Amino acid sequence: MGKVCLVLSMQDYNTIAEALLESALDWEHAADEMGCLHQFCARTGDPAYGAKLDRLDREQCRHRRLARRRRAVLERLQRQKAVSYTHLRAHETGAYL
Questions:
Q1: pTM for this structure?
Q2: On the CB side of 37, how many CA atoms lie within 13 Å of its CA?
Q3: Alpha-carbon distance 14 to 42, whole Å?
Q4: Can you give 42-69 as a three-state secondary structure string?
Q5: In terms of CB atoms within 10 Å, which of 18, 35, 45, 70 comes out highest?
Q6: Residue of 3, 25, 4 lying closest to 70 (CA atoms)
Q7: Rg (CA), the chain
Q8: What are the residues whose beta carbons fall under 8 Å from the beta carbon of 5, sequence distance 6 or more?
Q9: How confident is the model over 27-65, as pLDDT tens digits?
Q10: pLDDT computed for residue 34 by the predictor
């Protein structure tokens, strides 16, 4: 797999990290809400809720998966090291100092 170099200001980096975390939290919250709805539907014992419960289970799993993906991207982003512009140019041109 190839690598991509991004040149980000600290402000852009922080904005991206914040958006990823916020998105992950939103997906997790939505999954929690679906879990509460699932419990409510299950307690009623109404057989008509069977299909709805299956759909809720699938959607809840999907939401948790999306939250995990965003957290994984955020963790990768946080592990990256900052390098100088000179260092990047040296890689591009092969002119190491």
A1: 0.67
A2: 16
A3: 42
A4: HHHCCHHHHHHHHHHHHHHHHHHHHHHH
A5: 70
A6: 25
A7: 21
A8: 88, 91
A9: 999 999 988 888 888 888 777 777 888 888 899 999 999
A10: 87
